[in-house]
Amino acid sequence: MTKDDDIRLDVKDLISLIAVCFMLFNSSCLCAADWNMPRDFSGTQGESAFYYGYEFEGGQFTLMSEFGILTNAWTVDHLLPEPWYWTLLSKCSMHPDGSNEESRSRNNIDPVLRWLSPIADSILCDGHVWKRDITSDPISNGIDWSVKHNGGVIYSRYLEPQDSTGFDYSLSIRVQEGDVVDFVLNAHERNDHHDHTGYTVTIRAATVTDSDNNIPIDTGPALSIVASPNPFMSSTKLLLTSGVFRDGVSLRIFDVSGKVIDTIPIGQIVAGTRTVLWDSRMRDGHPLTSGVYFVQARGRDSVLCTRKIVLCR
Length: 313
Known about the structure:
Layout: H1 3-30, E1 34-37, E2 50-56, E3 62-63, E4 66-68, E5 73-75, E6 88-90, E7 93-95, E8 109-116, E9 121-131, E10 143-149, E11 152-159, E12 167-175, E13 180-187, E14 197-205, E15 223-228, E16 236-242, E17 246-255, E18 260-269, E19 272-278, E20 291-298, E21 303-311
Antiparallel strand pairs: 1-14, 2-3, 2-8, 4-5, 5-6, 6-7, 7-14, 8-13, 9-12, 9-14, 10-11, 10-13, 15-16, 16-19, 17-18, 17-20, 20-21
């Protein structure tokens, strides 16, 4: 074997090593207890618990039948009459089909990203929605973004035609195995002009165990928490909003292992919003490292709400 052969062998071994590392990295990502779009987007229905479909306004969910290799998007059957082809769903965008000048009476055809729950748990669901198709065209009416749980709407928000910034959404949902959560894009007022819309979806199992009392998280609509900024570098403001007076409220900060790393007594919250500044330190004053954490609001005898926060130093 020559010196050149030795070099070629070393290069082949290096390529093999890189390939193995790549497979291990992807395996570790897929084994994580979360579901994420666009990461988990697939040309196969049902992979990573996601299904790609559509529905007539308020109608039955139907799987999309065609996946375009070149467009990397799911579409409705192209054999159906025009303009059904406007309805599409890709890994980071959607487009609905509403009425147009020629067909004012037609119902909306809404793209639907469906998640079929493989677990029974509380889930934290969050993401971002924004307009990608920005135009000065006055006939654009914007879109409606909604989230449904087993067919019932649990969240809905309107997006303006010119809103390229968009909005964040964050939900806590208790699901059983086999429940469905749908993310639906609707052409506002049956007008699908310039409604190409970007989206992200992250779903994470919310069960984090309190290591002191072995009590799992139980989220609900009683009180909401918004962290701003999130992700954050050193400190973040926690905005607590309650519709009623509450007493004996406290915050607990968990790491991903379920360990309580900080406790913040709040006391009374009147109907409205209360702001608390958290400096990303443990109870003993030591600064925390970068990572994912959970903020849990507790009443005297119950868990009121839980939110995920991300520290990036």
